[in-house]
Amino acid sequence: MDTACWNAVIVGCTQNGYYLDSLRTFNLMRRETQVSHDFITLVSVISACGNLELLLEGQRSHGLAVKTLVNADIRVQNALIAMYGKLGENNDAKEVLALFRSLDFEPNEIIIATIISVCTQLGLAGFGKQIHGYVFRFQFHTNSFVIAALVDSYSNSGKLERAATVFRHSSEKSVAAWNSMMSAYGFHSKAFR
């Protein structure tokens, strides 16, 4: 089997929620064949690590990406940012910010929502405000996950009115945005209006 065949199995497992099978297949590929991985392999493996909350495996995959120079690929960088964002570890959150600062392409909604959440975890309200600027520059202010992340960020930094303003001005109020806003009012011991 070649890389494309292995990738078909690994990607299929990851996309269908069989994350552990994806990692097992990847380990089998590395152990029993001379076939080398590529960016497609690593994106799926990194995603599986994030979904399983396997920090050590994720860090190993990151190291493998760096060692084989695949980490320069945009899709691998996106997967790493998403994985570290899901894991929520403070040191990893700093890694996410470092990856974000080194991006040489325009971020997508998933990256922006993840970065906002990371800023919230680290208590970096100033950096979170800068990211809010990205939201408007890249027209992500209609994305429900971005809105929910912004509401959480402003609420956690003590700016309930700013969180409410973001919520009120969002064009589509998703369940995630409503949950974030209700949590914000609860967190600040205020009745939801």
Automatic annotation (TrEMBL):
Annotated GO biological process: RNA modification
Which Pfam families does this chain map to? Answer: PPR
Q: Which superkingdom, per the lineage?
A: Eukaryota
Tell me if Repeat is a UniProt keyword of this record: yes
Q: What are the protein's UniProt keywords?
A: Repeat
Q: Which Gene3D superfamilies match?
A: Tetratricopeptide repeat domain
Q: Name one GO molecular function term.
A: RNA binding
Name of the molecule in the record: Pentatricopeptide repeat-containing protein
